[in-house]
Amino acid sequence: MPKAKQRLEWVLVLAVWAVVIAGGESILLNYEIRPGSPAQPPQTWPLETDIQKSPERAALLMFVHPRCPCSRASLEELARLTARCGEKADIQIIFLSPGKQPASWTKTDLWEKAGAIPGVQVRLDKNGKEAKHFRVSTSGQTLLYGRDGQLLFNGGITASRGHSGDNAGRSALEDLLLKGASERSRTPVFGCSLIDQRAGFFERFLSLWKK
Amino acid sequence: MEKIKQRLHYEEKVAARALVLFEEHRLQINKNTDRLFAWLMIFQWIAGIAAAIWISPRTWSGQFSQVHLHVYAAVFLGGAITFLPAILGFVRSGETSTRYVIAVSQMLMSALLIHLSGGRIETHFHVFGSLAFLAFYRDWKVLIPATLIVAFDHWLRGAYWPQSVYGTLVVSYWRWLEHAGWVVFEDVFLIMSCLQGVKEMHSIAQRTAELEMTNQVIEAKVQERTQELITAKESLEDEIEGRKKLEGMVIQSEKMAAVGQLAAGIAHEINNPVGFIGNNLSVLSKYTVSFRVLLDKAKALQEAVMQKTMPLPEDLSRKSRRSKVNSILSISAAMSTRCFQNRRKASSGSKKLSTICALSRVQTASRAKTRI
């Protein structure tokens, strides 16, 4: 029965094809929703930091790896946040600047994009010193400290890696800045690691399957 | 009754032919669209790789970097999504299964491109644009698997990773329907467009079939008339040929008549002098005979004188005069002979001229061989 055999072959081809695609989509999706290492920032403004904070105003910090593609979405969300309630806090974007690298390594298109956001201050973080002070390890990590220096928010402001759009983190910050309170104070961060770390191809591949 | 039967038979033939034309047209549309999509899939795959390399080429850990997963996804996952519909589009174009695979693949490619672009709102337009492209098939059923893929994707993500779709962790269970609903909204209009397109194709096929039937009837009539014309032409050619021959004969006859008249005229003109000459020659011949008799007598007389039977008259006694008489006798003998010969020739020529005259008389002349 050649026709039946042909049909069976056709079904097998489709099945294999569907499995391959489903597997690929799963890996991609798993990667996109897998957050980076969460930060453990100090609950109060650290005294050892060089970043100045006004006692009159809240301070919003975003730590960015200058070459992280996912942080492009984080900056877009920060721009939206700034447009809505930027006047409510001092907003600073801190770019990682490894000591061995020249300034051009850090001043990428993300640096330009950050500088173009109105009312935002952009600064270099030499050798990740400030990141260490605030115990931040993932690009896109956003911290909000109140006027009294208390940590109000710790997390990311994108829904998944590199995806801009409505998200829980931005909503929480808007509520905190505009209303003074939010149901949520912590969200996952999606971005590249700020800490030097080498991993082989298979190690990375296997890490994609981890939740 | 006969006319009604003929009419029904004609309509059946037209309907059957219209159906064949419609299927051919639809198959051609499907094949063309399959090939178009095959190329589009390849182009999208390349564009996806370019986008991944442009937007997210590497992932970083401090100072160290590696190729971003998006690049691998663009190459391998994009290739997996592309290869089957592209192969089917080129090798099995026109098949139903081909366009269904293409529909599913196109939506999967939309999802991948949205991932690679970082969820850009603009990239979501690819979903709606792809549905419009799928309407090129004019087969509304193709939109079903495409829509189901979009709906399934949103349902699955909404159920397990709502943030990746809606941006919030808390989402109503039915929200995926809202997103799919926009797709269905477009589908409604595309389905209407497909049905309208198919209706137009039927109409075109029907008109084409009727035109073909009419052309066949006209062609048959033309063939029939052409054959009639050919036959008439052949008989006309035969008649013309016959008439030309007759005309040739008439012309020849006229020529002969003209020649005869000319000859008659000439003969008439010649006949008179010939006759005159002949008559004069006859007279001359008689005179010559008489003259010869006279000369014979003169010679006899001379001979007698010579033999001295008679005295020679004084004027003949001289030798010179004797020689003159001899020469006159010989000349007269020659003249007599010549006159006799010419008289015979003149008589012969006169006979011939008479024959020519007879020939020139068309009404009374009869064919006869003659030497001219």
List the topology elements.
The complex is a heterodimer of chains A (211) and B (372).
Chain A: H1 2-33, E1 58-64, H2 71-85, E2 89-97, H3 103-106, H4 109-115, E3 120-126, H5 129-133, E4 141-145, E5 151-155, H6 168-179, H7 201-208
Parallel strand pairs in A: 1-2, 2-3
Antiparallel strand pairs in A: 1-4, 4-5
Chain B: H1 2-55, E1 58-61, E2 64-67, H2 69-91, H3 96-116, H4 125-134, H5 143-160, H6 162-166, H7 175-306, H8 319-360
Antiparallel strand pairs in B: 1-2
A few lines on this structure:
Chain A is α/β, with parallel strands linked by helices and 211 residues long.
Could you list some keywords that capture this structure?
heterodimer; A: 211 residues; alpha/beta; 7 helices; 16% strand; elongated; B: 372 residues; mainly alpha; two-stranded antiparallel ribbon; 2 strands; 82% helix
Description:
The complex is a heterodimer of chains A (211) and B (372). With 211 residues, chain A is an alpha/beta fold. Chain A has a domain at 58-179: Glutaredoxin (3-Layer(aba) Sandwich). In chain A, 39% of the residues lie in helices and 16% in strands. In chain A, helix 2 packs parallel to helix 6 (168-179). The N and C termini of chain A lie far apart (47 Å). Chain B has 372 residues and is mainly alpha-helical. Chain B folds into two domains: 2-171, no CATH class; 251-360. In chain B, 82% of the residues lie in helices and 2% in strands. In chain B, strands 1-2 form a two-stranded antiparallel sheet. The A-B interface holds A 10, 13-14, 17, 20-21, 24-25, 27-29, 31-33, 65, 67-70, 72-73, 96, 98, 100-101, 128, 139, 159-160, 162-168, 171, 192-199, 201, 204, 208 and B 55-66, 68-70, 73, 76-77, 80-81, 84, 97, 101, 108, 111-112, 115, 118-121, 157, 161, 163-164, 166-169.
